[in-house]
Amino acid sequence: MTDSPSREDRAEAEAQAWVARLSHDGAGGGDGLAFDAWLDAAPGNRAAYGAALALWHEFGARANDILTELDGLPDGESADLDVPPAPAWSTPSAAPRRAARRSGARLPMRRWLPVAAGAALAAGLALAVLPPAADLAVAKTYTTAKGQHQRIALGDGSVIDLDAESRLSVSLSGAQRRVTLAEGQAIFDVVHDAKRPFVVRAAGRDVRDIGTQFDVKARDGQLTVTVARGRVAISADAGGPGRPVELGPGQRFEADPAGPARLTAVDPQETFSWRAGRLVYRAQPLSEVVADLNRQFIEQTEIADPTLAKLPITGVIVLDNPHAVMSRLSLMLPIRTVPSGKGLMLLRK
Questions:
Q1: How far apart are CA 51 and CA 47, in angstroms?
Q2: What is the pLDDT of residues 79-100, one digit of tens each?
Q3: Looking at residue 237, what is its pLDDT?
Q4: What pLDDT, in 10s, does the model give residues 110-134?
């Protein structure tokens, strides 16, 4: 029984297969997407590809030296040799193709056969080692802490802005683009591709892009989706029976496990304002405001009097620092703050 190849051996074989595939004139956009996914799939893939590419260029240089020596051979002792070009992606940063093709040169048949056999072996390796481009996928998880935001630029041109205390994973392949928002909030600015749907899984539902910019919030089992541009389709609860709900610009979908889903008209820029360091509220309880603030700041705020938690808040909160925020809120509400072990304690005036 043969031992399974090591990770290094497999990376080396896959790298050689990629060099063979990308050197072919028929390599297209799907190959490029799959290649980018493979580069990020394992730590050693980039180094393996660099080594395989160096070997490829060495072969091209040696072949050119042979062609130079054979320029004067009679036609009866030679055969045409077309030196393979360097791959279109000759570096991991997608450098332009290098022209390594030498036409009109001749090489004796006894020396051409090993070259042809090597090329056939490389082509066979590409087919044997690499799965179809549509099956190759790269997955990555992103997590933000209190007070931390992160902008994620995807390979397809889409952009995700991740809010504080959020966890999100992205899986891209040639067939689909799938995001799972386990907890938190994110703004998605999606480049639409009908052949590769963009789906966000959050709070037991699928939010499918139809070419759009939208915000998804999943906190404590509750789901809120707000659309600024384009349209999205939201599946039934937990993927169960029922028609998807479609949202257009200026619409918000809210689903709570304790009650029916709601569809309302909103100003989407108010929802998107957290990205610019502001939070907008319309008659929302102080407890919800404090919970949002505690995600944006390391220093935490506690509500000592339970009756204060129900006070409604309407206005714009600038996220500079918790002391300044609470000072401004105290002008609107009957509250005062005192230092606490975690940061600030809210008391009734």
A1: 6
A2: 444 444 555 454 444 433 333 3
A3: 73
A4: 444 444 444 444 444 444 455 554 4
Could you write out the DSSP letters of every residue in 121-142? HHHHHHHHHPPPGGG-EEEEEE
What does DSSP assign to residue 148? Answer: -
Residues 6+ apart with CB under 8 A from 132: 174
State the pLDDT at residue 101.
39
Q: How many CB atoms lie within 10 A of CB 310?
A: 10
Tell me the pLDDT of the chain averaged across its residues. 79
Compute CA distances 55 → 12, 32, 121, whole Å: 12, 21, 15
Q: Is the pTM of this model over 0.70?
A: no
E-assigned strands of 71-192?
A: 79-80, 106-107, 137-143, 150-153, 159-162, 167-173, 177-189
Question: Domains of the chain by range and CATH?
Answer: 7-134 (no CATH), 139-266 (2.60.120.1440), 277-348 (3.55.50.30)
Cβ-Cβ contacts under 8 Å for 54 (sequence gap 6 or more):
none
For 245, the enclosing helix (H) or strand (E) is strand 245-247
Mode of pairing for the β-strands spanning 312-318 and 335-339: unpaired
Q: Closest Cα to residue 23, out of 11, 12, 35?
A: 35
Three-point CA angle 213, 30, 83, nearest 5°: 145
